[in-house]
Amino acid sequence: MSPQTSTIPACYLWLIPLLPFVGFLINGILGRKMPRAFVTAIALIFTAIPAAIVAWLWSVMTAGNAPEAIHAVSKPWIAISGFQVNFAFTVDHLTLIMLGVVTGVGFLIHLYSAGYMAHEDGYWRFFAYLNLFMFFMSVLVLASSFLLLFVGWEGVGLASYLLIGFYFKKDSASDAGKKAFIVNRIGDFGFLLAMFLIVAHFGNLNFTDVFSSISQHPEWHGGFLTAIALLLVVGATGKSAQIPLYIWLPDAMEGPTPVSALIHAATMVTAGIYMVARCHTLFDRSTTALAVVAIIGAATAILAASIGMVQHDIKRVLAYSTVSQLGYMFLACGVGAYAAGIFHLLTHAFFKALLFLAAGSVIHALSGEQDMRNMGGLRKRIPVTFWTMTSGVFAIAGIWPFAGFFSKDEILYQTFISANPIAKLLWLVGLVTAGMTSFYMFRLWFKTFFGEQRFEEHPEQAHGHAAHAGEDEHDEGQTAHPHGVHESPWIMLFPLVVLGILSLIGGWEHTAFGNFLDPVFGTANAATEAATAASHGLELTLAAVSLIVVAIGFLFAWFFYYKKPGTAAALALKTKPLYSLLDHKYWVDEIYGALIVTPLLMFSRLILAGLVDTGLVNGSGALAGATTRGLSTITRRVQSGNIRSYAGWLALGAAAVLVVMIFGRGLWPH
Amino acid sequence: MAAQVPTAYYLVLAAILFSIGVGSFLIKRNIITIFMSIELMLNAVNLTFVAFAHQWHQISGQIFVFFVMVVAAAEAAVGLAIIIAIFRTRQTLNVDQVDLMKL
């Protein structure tokens, strides 16, 4: 590396978000009139270049004497006496990992989408939104201040809203988009309040300034730091779909499957975890906030996993699984094991994106069928999808040596040894969740790929996704199988294979990964690492325990859905109250509806719409109008349009002036 | 020196002419007649100008009359053109029927 390398990247940092934005502008403005090949080329090129830049950054940052962080500052954005926010980007090792996930997985999903969306209407719109998302997500992870992070934070929310509601003609899709947006807004409110508190206490929003002033005051504990941290957690629960704001994520599955993979599994929903990890200096000073994070994480993990066990829609199972895995990451952050949380974020990005894309491939093969009750026996029919998805299932279930094993195990271990007073309970919850995860993932696996075929094959299919017609062009010469079920084109399989391999090997370098993040988490990790060295035996024992639990989950799934299919339904009948509690997702949507939405709606309808809007606003307008109208009924008579009447008034006026002039001279003083 | 006609006579005549003009302007419906009554009023005013100019031996009153005549000629040209245009579009010169601008 030449000496200049540390300065050159600064200018290239700007290209990472800006190129997708240019792609968004081109496709958004011109895409409608352009051929699909052009749209695809624009979208892919403008995401491939940032991925290449990130790969190059990676090589620069990991070189021998590389700086810990690269800064790129442009003009000041907001500058009010003493308070200044710049357009400034920073790349450190944490950002580098996030950038790798965003641009790398993002590019693969763009590639996949080119095949998956090939026959959809609004192709250009889809890729414009996708590029817009890439822009905001890069801004989010590159930002070096809370405010710029918030810009990306809001922007990804917008892109998410647009993409969930992509099939906006479907009511359920546009409703899901609105739900996601509004629920996220609640979280953003917390984030905004946290920023106000930071400004009030630090007079600054830059990460480095805020965190260094915390470091300089070792006596600061709890107090306002707890307040800030808890408000940030509110923001994170919205974006990362944690209790109590997780309800939007399962509904977000209304969007196209690549969107679920990119935004609602791999990248956007991890923004909350990223943010908590980024603010670890702040969280470390507040045991209360950390405990809240850990409890929220553990509770979300087990709650979502339990719901996921009874879902029938393949994408909904994965959605609840995502919520549950995000809970794991929260748990890791909550016990101070940020590196473990980020590690799980990384491996989760691989295997969950893979699972969603593979599910998309299954849906594609069955022409829009998403209900697992109508699948089965697909193992031989779509072999590439089967094998890649198997890699994902094994990874998320946490089976050695797949990626998920290492990251999940690290979290469970760190939870077990943490100083948290209820650490053992949290660990137990995590362990049970691991068993549930294994159960619902293998349930999905068996129901989709094994057993008898439960779908009907039509030579001329009724297309669920209207636009999946004309698939024949993509059959790639696989004429041996009947027309109905068929493997996806190579452009979709390639990302699957890449992610499948990553899901297998992604966890192997787990020790190196922890060291890689040391410059960022520094002190936070030092303590836990000492403990790690001391109790290697304990780690192995815990790993063995979790493997046994995973195996039990697998056996249950194997028994219910492979060995004796049908026993599950009988069991569900026997345990009716419990089953229906899970099936209705603990009635959380209904409870929120009754407690919050309905009162709010009634208040809006009766008080705001009825009284204020109709009464006050409309009333005052109507009153002003009626007054003017009433007065004008008198004066308008003068404007008759009749020339002679005008002339008469003129003569009368002249006569009046004359009379006043002649006889009225004494009436006013001179 | 011949007996002079007193100025008051001229003024009374002018007042009579002006009143006839105002009255016919208000009463008549035909646009051309109205136009003529305007001319009548203008000339009544001209008469007073000339009368006073004569009485006070001042030229300015007479010069003012020329201005009024010029303006009246211009007004006649424009006014007659408008009248012709109205007649072409409406086939009538009755002012009571030209009332599109009313509310």
Number of discrete helical segments of chain B: 3
Q: Which descriptor suits the 3D outline of chain B?
A: elongated
- Spatial order of the strands in the main sheet of chain A? 1-2
CATH architectural arrangement of chain B = Orthogonal Bundle
Looking at how many chains there are and whether they match, the oligomeric state comes to heterodimer
The average pLDDT value of chain A, as a whole number, equals: 86
Largest sheet of chain A: 2 strands, antiparallel
Radius of gyration of chain B: 17 Å
CATH topology of chain B: Helix Hairpins
Tally of domains of chain B:
1
How many H/I helices of chain A? 25
- Total number of strands of chain B: 0
Uncertain ranges of chain A: 1-6, 459-482
Could you give the topology of this structure?
The complex is a heterodimer of chains A (670) and B (103).
Chain A lengths: L7 H23 L5 H26 L8 E11 L2 E9 L1 H24 L6 H20 L3 H19 L6 H32 L4 H9 L8 H16 L8 H4 L5 H10 L4 H8 L1 H4 L3 H22 L5 H21 L3 H28 L17 H15 L5 H15 L5 H27 L40 H16 L4 H25 L1 H28 L3 H8 L1 H8 L4 H48 L7 H21 L7
Antiparallel strand pairs in A: 1-2
Chain B lengths: L6 H21 L3 H26 L3 H31 L13
Description:
- The complex is a heterodimer of chains A (670) and B (103).
- Chain A is built from 25 helices and 2 strands.
- By secondary structure, chain A is an all-alpha fold.
- In chain A, strands 1-2 form a two-stranded antiparallel sheet.
- Chain A starts with 7 loop residues before the first helix and ends in a 7-residue tail after the last helix.
- The longest helix of chain B has 31 residues, at 60-90.
- Chain B has one domain (7-95): Helix Hairpins (Orthogonal Bundle), CATH 1.10.287.
- In chain B, helix 2 (31-56) runs antiparallel to helix 3 (60-90).
- Chain B has helices spanning 7-27, 31-56, 60-90.
- Chain B is mostly helical and 103 residues long.
- Chains A and B meet through helix 25 of A and helix 1 of B.
